């Protein structure tokens, strides 16, 4: 990131929970020509800024489809970014007059809502899947648009978790610190800062090892509230300023910060189980083997390495069902409708319903089904 971009990064990161629309249409990166790749993304400001940063030194055309100002994964899962939006930007931008090829590179995470085959059928443009993360795009382009296996999977590294913790905590910190300052206590302001950073930073740092579903969730979050309170009281003690009123306020801050954070982490960390996900959509991905022809489109779009192609049997297999986050991408992309969701009681949700309703962990979580 260039230093002059820092204020924009700060604003976009602070507000990343909310839609933030960039203009749709065509963006030139570098000096693209008639053979340059054509990449597709949504019109979420933060994504476009990061893409331009990541692709510095490359010559590409970037098509920004209308994702309603939401990031690609959430927009596609929620039904706000579909193949119609991609087809629309291909036509309106008149990219076909600027290049000699007819190939789009789609972000893999839009597979929950953008049907690749429909784009080819309607426009004549073929579409291939790019990496799940934009950081992997330069390598993908250097390898002449060849994807390596690890680039298909979603990762959530520490620095991104810290960025998320900043997104969650800045408003809380602002309220708590301004409140403490308003009642005239810098010691209390520092204490509130320490409490919130202790809780939010700690939870996000430890997220891959945390249990955030079921009854144990409250114990887990309670433990972090105690840690945050301890950190805040430690600050007060170091400043020699721990009255009983201060202790009550520090405890209150710990409870509020923990409560806000534990409402649901699903939107922030869709690849970890969440309260909403566990209780509102207990369906599991299910394979009808007789329909599977081994096209393996599902394997290409699964961000969690759940599915594998068995070359001998020429069939896909569900290898790691416990890793499935019910994004529905495999179901939407399967040309044979061989995948679907199945509930414990035997009811199934077929692919056509999932395509129509966006029943997945980001979009609609339940649909009315007939009894089995
Ligand atoms: S197997 Fe699960 S995680 Fe993988 S694409 Fe299908 S629904 Fe998504």
Q: In a few lines, what is going on in this structure?
A:
The protein has about 375 residues and is an alpha/beta fold. The protein contains 14 helices and ten strands. The protein starts with 5 loop residues before the first helix and ends in a 15-residue tail after the last helix.
Please provide a written account of the structure.
- By secondary structure, this protein is α/β, with parallel strands linked by helices.
- It has 3 domains: 3-152, Rossmann fold (3-Layer(aba) Sandwich); 158-262, no CATH class; 275-357, Alpha-Beta Plaits (2-Layer Sandwich), CATH 3.30.70.
- It has helices at 6-14, 45-54, 72-77, 83-93, 116-123, 137-142, 158-182, 186-205, 216-238, 244-262, 275-280, 297-301, 329-333, 351-357, and strands at residues 25-29, 38-42, 60-65, 103-106, 126-129, 284-287, 307-310, 315-318, 339-342, 348-349.
- The strands form 3 sheets. The protein has a 5-stranded mixed β-sheet with strand order 1-3-2-4-5, with helices on both faces. Strands 6-9-10 form a 3-stranded antiparallel β-sheet.
- Helix 8 runs antiparallel to helix 9.
- It is globular and about 70 Å long.
- It binds iron/sulfur cluster.
- Iron/sulfur cluster (SF4) binds next to helix 13.
Write the layout of secondary structure elements.
Layout: H1 6-14, E1 25-29, E2 38-42, H2 45-54, E3 60-65, H3 72-77, H4 83-93, E4 103-106, H5 116-123, E5 126-129, H6 137-142, H7 158-182, H8 186-205, H9 216-238, H10 244-262, H11 275-280, E6 284-287, H12 297-301, E7 307-310, E8 315-318, H13 329-333, E9 339-342, E10 348-349, H14 351-357
Parallel strand pairs: 2-3, 2-4, 4-5
Antiparallel strand pairs: 1-3, 6-9, 7-8, 9-10
Bound molecules: iron/sulfur cluster.
């Amino acid at each position: 990131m260039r230093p002059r971009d820092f204020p924009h990064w700060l604003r976009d990161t602070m507000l990343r929970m909310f839609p933030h629309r960039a203009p749709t249409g065509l963006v030139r990166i570098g000096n693209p020509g008639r053979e340059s790749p054509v990449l597709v993304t949504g019109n979420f400001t933060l994504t476009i800024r990061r893409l331009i940063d990541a692709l510095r030194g490359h010559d590409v055309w970037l098509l920004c489809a209308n994702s309603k100002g939401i990031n690609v994964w959430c927009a596609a899962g929620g039904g706000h970014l579909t193949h119609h939006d991609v087809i629309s930007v291909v036509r309106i931008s008149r990219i076909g007059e600027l290049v000699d090829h007819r190939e789009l590179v789609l972000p893999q995470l839009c597979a929950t809502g953008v049907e690749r085959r429909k784009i080819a059928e309607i426009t004549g443009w073929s579409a291939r899947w790019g990496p799940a993360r934009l950081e992997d795009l330069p390598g993908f382009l250097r390898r002449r648009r060849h994807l390596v296996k690890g680039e298909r999977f979603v990762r959530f590294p520490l620095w991104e978790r810290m960025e998320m913790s900043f997104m969650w905590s800045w408003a809380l910190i602002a309220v708590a610190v301004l409140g403490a300052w308003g009642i005239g206590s810098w010691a209390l302001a520092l204490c509130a800062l320490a409490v919130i950073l202790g809780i939010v930073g700690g939870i996000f740092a430890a997220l891959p090892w945390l249990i955030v579903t079921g009854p144990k969730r409250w114990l887990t979050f309670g433990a972090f509230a105690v840690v945050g309170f301890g950190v805040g009281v430690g600050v007060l003690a170091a400043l020699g300023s721990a009255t009983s009123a201060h202790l009550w306020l520090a405890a209150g801050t710990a409870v509020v910060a923990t409560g806000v954070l534990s409402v649901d982490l699903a939107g922030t960390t869709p690849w970890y189980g969440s309260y909403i996900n566990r209780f509102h959509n207990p369906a599991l991905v299910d394979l009808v083997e007789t329909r599977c022809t081994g096209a393996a489109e599902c394997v290409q779009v699964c961000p969690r390495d759940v599915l594998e192609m068995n070359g001998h049997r020429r069939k896909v297999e569900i290898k790691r069902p416990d890793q499935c986050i019910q994004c529905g991408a495999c179901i939407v992309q399967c040309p044979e409708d061989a995948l679907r969701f199945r509930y414990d009681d035997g009811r199934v949700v077929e692919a056509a319903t999932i395509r129509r309703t966006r029943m997945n962990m980001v979009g609609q979580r339940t649909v009315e089904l007939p009894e089995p």
